[in-house]
Structure to design on (1194 residues):
């Protein structure tokens, strides 16, 4: 079989000719960014083919790649079908990603479902041959023992600790172990997984771990992964579940190792995730989420055995999955709404979680309306020509001044691209400085005086105007198309905002607070949100940033039975509005596309 | 690797030298009877080594085998350690076994836990994106859907049938399938497995299947299998469970095939078994049953998912395991007591299930006392020199007349051995004709006149007297040791009988009825039971035969929620008396050894 040599990883993989290069690399767990999942659309799956270039160059590649890239051997791996030995260089590096694991936590009483009781067990005698189960049930007042406990335990000790989940006996440990109860709170994002190991005796977060969602190899966004599921009906559900479960098991292992804790002492795992990720996690068909009428298989909270999905914790451990409202208002958003205290507020509060989808919940004196806007991945740095995720080397802020362009780069490195907050800052600056007009178009270069400090910032690529973010041998450019992507995101989010207000018969000045949730939202400053018109000027002093509310909600549910109940009630109270089906939506959307200024 | 050729099966198996022949054969699923599980004690695992005999003959073999057997190449396979290619002949044939699948069934109301409801499902719309789970829960009034149902089902049809177990939704089927509900009732005996496929709409038994318990390869009786479990701690629990589950799956397949029914339509399996078999079935450690104080891991009834133990039926199907009382009063006996209506009787009734253990329950005006006597396997034809199981060729009845010995043989074949009912009949006849004295010893041949019709029936083997059941080139003999085995069984059972009466302060003539349960008990006639003194003369006209009450009890539990509850209450009401620990037991036992006459 021919081989592919991956230079900088010192790896080689053998392959059977026929598959494209991207498929071969992904199958061998070699990461290549491919937002469109190998459809030849996004132009992100670049690799450099080394040596004499043996591969045919397609028209699509010529269109999506720059000429100097083509000349230096860069190809789109999804369009290369190798036939012989080749050597390549992977162009994206998997860099340390910036993930926020902290955030606002409201005060609440700890009353976890998991608790322990210690007891002395009487030994059976010839006169009283009481079974092990009966002895245990008698001392603990339990109704019966789970089969798994009967299968596992041969406890000869007389001192024994029973682990309970509510009234159910879920574990037995020899000796007195009442001091050791652990749980895990998890936020499964489409992009990022965040886990926290919790000492359930004290409620303290004693370790955290995070990683990029390994399902990325099946596509970067929810819809691409659903498409993968549809295209591979024989085993995709198992694959998608396996990837996420494996990753969680690894992170739990890492945290337990840090704290020198046995994973068998973890008795509950509490999980928030969007609706699709929750379906994938539980091995449930998510395809109906991908097409109208977007009816998911389930939205209710679930309490299952960790073993049922393959999580490696205590044998009797439970997994609590927070409830969702609809296909696009997932448990992550419900968790956020709970952390934002929407179940209690009597004020008018808008909760917003900005990501690929912008989810919003409006509390109108306690009445809850929700919607989800297809913002697209632009605000996360995707679908942007120089876009990159928020990792080292990403431009996260931009200032245009008379003396030039100031860039703030994560890790203070040489910039390699622009992430979500960076593109938003850049567009805001383009609007502020008048380089981009209200309709989203770049101004004509000839309208500027050559002495204008902005003159050199605009250049022409053929007939297309573009903004030079950084000029060098490898320039970073913001194209007209990039601005359009941000504009579409803005239109989607702002129109959702107005539809909710309209439905609630509320004026903007009646809003008391706007809560910004999500680890991504935390990087979007009020200046940039208002400056690009994603949110209207009137709310600029009402913004409150909550951080990763999804993980916080999972943590609170883990630590309290009452919180679980309240979160479930909250999910039931939220009404969901499908924007596309709401009256006059197209008109509102068109108006919302207009930039401020 | 050297090979073993099995002549009549036209099979050959390769092996690594080191293991004994029995181990090699068992590992290759070739049946060799080995009651002592390869300990070189029982002398039953005979094989004939063909050709020049290449194997060393041990002293044990010389003792346990007859000279003409040794000369013709017969060896005990557990004592042969082959080193090269050999050809053998298996001496026992696996013959059709005689299993009783019918018996007395008291009338009762059908109210199975499993039931179905048909409904029309509304399709989701863009305005009402209700999840699949919510739609289902709404129409069926269910609280939530099991994860397995969410994982499995993608029902596009609008007509849908919900399968319920009590209030739990356990299955969904497309269309209206309310006419098809099936269940299975099972009796797991140490020796025999009996299954029945039940149409739960009508309560009719529509198919049956039975087979020898495949765990026999780990020993013929409970204690030998427990010893196997102890000796092989790494995987014996899994092996023992696997064998029984595989066998049940095969029988279910066979019954479904007979009736042209899909096994996925079976929603409940109800199982009675002795305590050890139930532990093995559920993959629970049974070793504590093997040693004092005989405390099992569990005795309570269990309702688990069929999937948890690997039964191949509907994905959401449940398994109900009937409750036991103690290590040696298992769910099979509780089932029998229920079928014998011990929960209701106001009379004085003795229930007795005769097998390797004789289990007895005495109802003293509704108060229930139970005990278990170690009768040994003699009454099942084991531990008897010419013993065989109740299969074709087994002598099942014996009459001694002045004109000779009349034998009744199963299948009307040439006799190959004597089964339980046969050995009992033979001993009864030996007592009746005075050939065996009250103390169990054969009379001296010299006490008989040479003209006596009994003269030729007694012969001497060295100094030992023995009874010639059939004289021919391959004679069938009943030895003094065989009579002793029956005597021990008699002593064990009768002493249990008296201890129960004593505990209840009851005289024999106060007994109203004696119920004989079990497929084996059904073959033991009142004449033989009383004639050998296993039961006293006074009860001979009070015997009632119930047949396989274990399976019947499982069937009744399957068909009624109320029966399940009553059986569980019955088990709780039974007091268990450990004979060995009861006062003056040795003396009673010694008295009970005396034969009548």
């Amino acid at each position: 079989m021919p081989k592919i040599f991956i230079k900088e990883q010192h790896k080689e993989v053998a392959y059977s000719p026929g598959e494209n290069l991207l498929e071969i690399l992904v199958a061998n767990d070699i990461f290549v960014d491919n937002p469109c999942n190998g459809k030849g659309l996004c132009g992100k799956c670049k690799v450099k083919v080394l040596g004499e270039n043996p591969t045919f160059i397609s028209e699509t590649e010529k269109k999506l790649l720059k000429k100097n890239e083509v000349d230096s051997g860069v190809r789109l791996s999804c369009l290369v079908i190798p036939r012989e030995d080749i050597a390549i260089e992977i162009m994206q590096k998997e860099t340390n990603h910036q993930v926020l694991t902290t955030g606002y936590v409201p005060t609440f009483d700890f009353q976890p479902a998991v608790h322990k009781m210690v007891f002395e067990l009487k030994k059976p005698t010839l006169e009283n041959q009481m079974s092990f189960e009966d002895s245990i049930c008698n001392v603990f007042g339990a109704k019966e023992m789970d089969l798994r406990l009967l299968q596992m335990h041969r406890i000869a000790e007389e001192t024994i600790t029973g682990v309970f989940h509510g009234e159910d006996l879920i574990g037995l440990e020899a000796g007195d172990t009442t001091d050791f109860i652990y749980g895990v709170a998890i936020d499964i994002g489409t992009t990022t997984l965040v886990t926290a190991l919790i000492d359930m005796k004290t409620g303290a977060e004693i370790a955290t771990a995070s990683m990029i969602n390994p399902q990325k190899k099946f596509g970067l966004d929810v819809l691409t992964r659903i498409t993968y599921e549809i295209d591979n009906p024989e085993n995709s559900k198992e694959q998608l579940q396996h990837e996420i479960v494996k990753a969680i098991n690894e992170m739990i292992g890492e945290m337990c190792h840090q704290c020198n804790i046995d994973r068998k002492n973890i008795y509950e795992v509490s999980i928030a995730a969007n609706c699709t990720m929750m379906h994938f996690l539980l091995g449930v068909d998510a395809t109906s989420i991908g097409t109208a009428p977007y009816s998911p298989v389930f939205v209710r909270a679930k309490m299952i055995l960790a073993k049922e999905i393959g999580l490696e914790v205590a044998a009797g451990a439970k997994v609590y999955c927070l409830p969702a409202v609809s296909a696009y208002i997932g448990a992550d958003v419900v968790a956020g709404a709970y952390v934002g205290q929407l179940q209690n507020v009597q004020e008018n509060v808008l909760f917003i979680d900005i990501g690929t989808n912008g989810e919003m919940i409006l509390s109108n004196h306690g009445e809850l309306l929700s919607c989800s806007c297809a913002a697209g991945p632009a605000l996360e740095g995707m679908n942007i020509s120089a876009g990159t995720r928020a990792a080292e080397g990403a431009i996260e802020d931009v200032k245009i001044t008379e003396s030039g362009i100031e860039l703030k780069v994560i890790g203070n490195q040489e910039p390699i691209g622009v992430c979500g907050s960076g593109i938003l800052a850049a567009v805001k600056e383009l609007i502020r400085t008048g380089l981009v007009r209200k309709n989203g178009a770049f101004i004509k270069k000839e309208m500027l005086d050559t002495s204008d400090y902005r003159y050199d910032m605009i250049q022409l690529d053929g007939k297309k105007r573009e903004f030079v973010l950084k000029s060098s041998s490898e320039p970073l450019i913001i194209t007209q198309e990039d601005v359009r992507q941000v504009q579409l995101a803005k239109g989607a989010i702002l129109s959702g905002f107005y539809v909710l207000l309209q439905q609630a018969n509320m004026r903007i000045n009646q809003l008391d607070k706007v809560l910004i949730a999500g680890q991504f939202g935390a990087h979007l400053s009020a200046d940039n949100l208002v400056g690009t018109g994603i949110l209207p000027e009137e709310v600029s002093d009402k913004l409150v940033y909550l951080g990763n509310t999804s993980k916080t909600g999972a943590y609170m549910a883990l630590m309290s039975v009452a919180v679980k109940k309240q979160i479930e009630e909250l999910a039931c109270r939220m009404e969901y509005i499908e924007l596309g089906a709401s009256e006059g939506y197209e008109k509102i959307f068109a108006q919302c596309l207009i930039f401020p200024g």
Chain B has five domains: 3-90, 114-174, 187-321, 341-376+486-549+556-592, 378-485. Residues 94-101 of chain B have pLDDT under 50 and may be disordered. The two ends of chain B are 61 Å apart (CA to CA). Residues 114-174 of chain B form one domain.
